[in-house]
Write a structure and sequence with these properties.
With 534 residues, the protein is an alpha/beta fold. It folds into two domains: 271 residues, Metallo-dependent phosphatases (Purple Acid Phosphatase, chain A, domain 2, 4-Layer Sandwich); 222 residues, 5'-nucleotidase,  domain 2, CATH 3.90.780.10. Helices cover 29% and strands 25% of the residues. The protein contains 15 helices and 28 strands. The protein has a six-stranded mixed sheet with strand order 4-3-2-1-13-14, covered by helices on one side. Helix 8 links the parallel strand 9 and strand 10. Helix 10 crosses helix 15. The radius of gyration is 26 Å and the shape is globular. The N and C termini lie far apart (100 Å). The N terminus is likely disordered.
Length: 534
């Protein structure tokens, strides 16, 4: 039998050995990071990712669920609750870390912060601050998994300043008061990674809402110009990515993205030997978590009576995408963009109506049209607006619409009562200010013809640079400097206060509750946008 003093010493030693043994066992288990991006209210994704989380916890205690942004907007469940239902579902999963997508600002900055205060996950973003230097969110968090430490760094796309509603980021005097760091985003990302390493992080995972093809700052260029990051979980571009790229030191970095609306769910394993093994999983193969599924059903029941109300009928599919699911409304005319632009003009009372491709988020299918269908087309809670512009100002503004053609752009516009042609061989000379907002046009112009329709005779006339035209559309573009601020020089004039969905509903009523195939055929025969040969 051990002496009393020895027994007292032996017990702590035994407990320490047990703890060490347990830690060793845990360190031999994978760290599993489940990730998604750009879910845009495709809520079944949350029940699938929760089911995947529950399954992973059966073989390892080291599981994290993360998001690369754009989750509170995209369908009626988001727009009617202004994001609150989505936060509820993410908490039910639950999530561990997320970064900020540009559409997280769609219901104002104040609303975003209200929602994030209720989100149980940590929010990280290293390149978002006030202009006086105060960070809105932590640049990174470090999570412990046994004796291993993983840092999650967040980054938002700098284009948020104009791809969301620009006036949301301004004070009452029109001065920008938030900074997305156009010029030093990469530097801030590397600084966050370096600091996390200094604090003991063994791995650095970037939750990136940069996109792989954004001109100003993108994930591919960022990897090539930075150090210290092991993997980039990317969002914003809606692409499926599964590749490795060399960083500034020539070391391989994983670049991964799951597409959009839950096309895939990502799974990144950090193995005990330190290697990373990613996978993109088709969600249909995954079991659903009942707790999330039950909450979805409760929310849907609360919304059903309102959104399932039949409000009209369509004789034709109004399309936003082609057969390959390419977002054609962002670089060419479709019957959907024609119909919405007509609604803006007729209901808004302008000589010209406009709709931008980036605001069209769902088609209208042949058959009964519900209120939910209309909300899904433009799910942003924007309002009717009206402005005056000279013909020259309009010619200048519309150069922004085609600055990237034939590459898709959310700024691409289709008009009602206006048609135009471009020559894409002519280089764009659109000028940008320090915030990458529209400032003017230089010596070359891609628009070679623009005509305005006479509302009385129906005849088309060449636009008069000196004449003044009234334009109706959404406050996002016409008043709030959306679409890269292309309408920033327009003069606001009074208009009815009407929500975007009500604009579409009112126009549907004016059409006798029916969208006719003869007026809006899939094969468009009266072109509002054409491309001419040089």
């Amino acid at each position: 039998m051990f002496p009393t003093m020895t027994r007292r010493r032996f017990l702590p030693l035994l407990l320490a050995l047990v703890s060490m043994f347990s830690a060793c066992r845990q360190n031999k288990r994978d760290i599993v990071i489940l990730f998604e991006n750009d879910v845009h209210c495709a809520v079944e994704t949350y029940s699938r990712i929760a089911g995947l989380r529950d399954a992973a916890l059966k073989y390892t205690p080291h599981v994290a669920v993360v998001s690369a942004g754009d989750f509170i907007q995209g369908d009626v469940i988001g727009s009617l609750s202004k994001g609150e239902y989505i936060i509820d579902l993410m908490n039910t999963v639950p999530y561990d870390v997320t970064t900020v997508g540009n559409h997280e600002f769609d219901y104002t900055v104040a609303r975003q912060q209200w929602l994030f205060d209720r989100l149980t996950a940590d929010v990280v973003c290293c390149n978002l601050s006030t202009t006086d230097g105060k960070d809105l969110y932590r640049p990174y968090v470090i999570r412990n998994y046994g004796n291993r430490r993983v840092a999650f760094v967040g980054a938002a796309t700098p284009t948020t300043l104009h791809s969301s509603t620009p006036t949301f980021f301004m004070d009452s005097k029109g001065q920008v008061i938030y900074d997305f760091h156009f010029d030093d985003t990469y530097t801030l990302i590397e600084q966050a990674a370096t600091q996390a390493r200094r604090e003991g992080a063994d791995y650095v995972i970037l939750l990136s809402h940069l996109g792989d093809d954004t001109p100003i700052a993108n994930s591919m260029d960022m990897i090539r110009q930075t150090r210290g990051i092991d993997a980039v979980l990317d969002g914003h571009a809606h692409h499926v990515l599964y590749s490795q790229l060399p960083n500034a030191d020539g070391e391989s970095v994983w670049l991964l993205s799951t597409g959009s609306k839950g096309k895939y769910i990502g799974e990144l394993h950090i193995r005990p030997d330190g290697t990373l093994r990613p996978d993109l999983i088709v969600p249909d193969s995954l079991a659903k978590a009942h707790r999330v599924e039950n909450r979805i059903r409760e929310i849907e029941q609360a919304l059903a009576e309102q959104v399932n109300q039949v409000v009209g009928y369509s004789e034709v599919d109004l399309l936003d995408r082609d057969m390959q699911q390419q977002r054609v409304v962002r670089w060419q005319e479709t019957n959907l963009s024609d119909w919405v632009a007509d609604a803006m003009r007729v209901v808004g009372g302008g000589q010209i109506g406009f709709m931008h491709g980036g605001g069209l988020r769902a088609p209208i299918r042949k058959g009964n049209i519900t209120l939910g269908d209309l909300i899904a087309v433009i799910p942003f809670n924007n309002r009717l607006a009206k402005v005056e512009m000279t013909g020259q100002q309009l010619l200048d503004a519309m150069e922004v619409s085609v600055v990237t053609y034939p590459i898709e752009s959310g700024d691409f516009h289709i008009g009602s009562g206006l048609r135009y042609s471009i020559d894409p061989s002519i280089p764009s000379s659109v000028q940008w200010d320090e915030q990458n907002m529209f400032a003017g046009v230089g010596s070359t112009r891609r628009i070679v013809r623009m005509e305005v329709q006479d509302s009385k005779t129906g005849k088309w006339k060449k636009i008069d640079p000196k004449a003044v035209y009234t334009i109706s559309g959404l406050n996002y573009t016409l008043l709030n400097q959306g679409a890269s601020g292309m309408f920033r020089y327009a003069k606001p004039i009074p208009s009815d206060d009407m929500k975007d969905t009500d604009i579409l509903l009112t126009y549907l009523r004016l059409l006798g509750d029916t969208i006719r195939a003869a007026q809006y055929p899939e094969d468009i025969n009266e072109k509002r946008f054409t491309v001419v040969e040089p």
